[in-house]
Amino acid sequence: QVQLVESGGGLVQAGGSLRLSCAASGRIPSSYATGWFRQAPGKERESVATITWSAGVTSYADSVKGRFTISRDNAKNTVYLQMNSLKPEDTAVYYCAAAPNIATMRFGSWGQGTQVTVSS
Predict the structure, then answer these.
(1) What's the mean pLDDT when you consider all of the chain?
(2) Is 108 left (phi over 0), alpha (psi -120 to 50) or beta?
(3) Residue 80: per-residue pLDDT
(4) Nearest partner of 68 among 107, 38, 102, 33, judged by Cα
(5) Within 13 Å of residue 29, how many CA atoms lie on the same side as its CB?
(6) 33 SS3 class
């Protein structure tokens, strides 16, 4: 399993932007997928965006389409989440995760999370 460390969270006003980063401890194999998830207080964790490591195929939750962009830098073993036009309902702890098989997309490696707070 890879070890993941997120950074880039913080407090931002509605309409603002943040970029989250997730650095892996080593090389991420080409068979992997990585993703961003979030969990707001009192709510279940939900998938925000995923990207396959080799081909860069992306998917997004409907709630963030057109506002968030997931990307990866294979050389740096880092995945990013660019968040624009942030809304108060985007407030949550954001987690980075990795899945060893893009066919099953079972995310077994998780970072510690980074808090994103959007004020109205």
Answers:
(1) 96
(2) alpha
(3) 98
(4) 38
(5) 9
(6) strand
Burial class (CB in 10 A: 0-12, 13-18, 19+), 98: buried
DSSP 88: G
Length of the chain: 120
Phi-psi region of 56 (alpha: psi -120 to 50; beta: other; left: phi over 0): left
Residue 114, CA atoms < 13 Å, CB-side half-sphere: 20
Residue 8 has pLDDT above 80, yes or no: yes
| 75-89: average pLDDT | 97
Q: Give the span between the Cα atoms of 94 and 64, in whole angstroms.
A: 13
pLDDT at 1 over 80: no
At 109 the pLDDT is: 94
DSSP state string for 42-83: TS--EEEEEEETTT--EEE-TTTTTTEEEEEETTTTEEEEEE
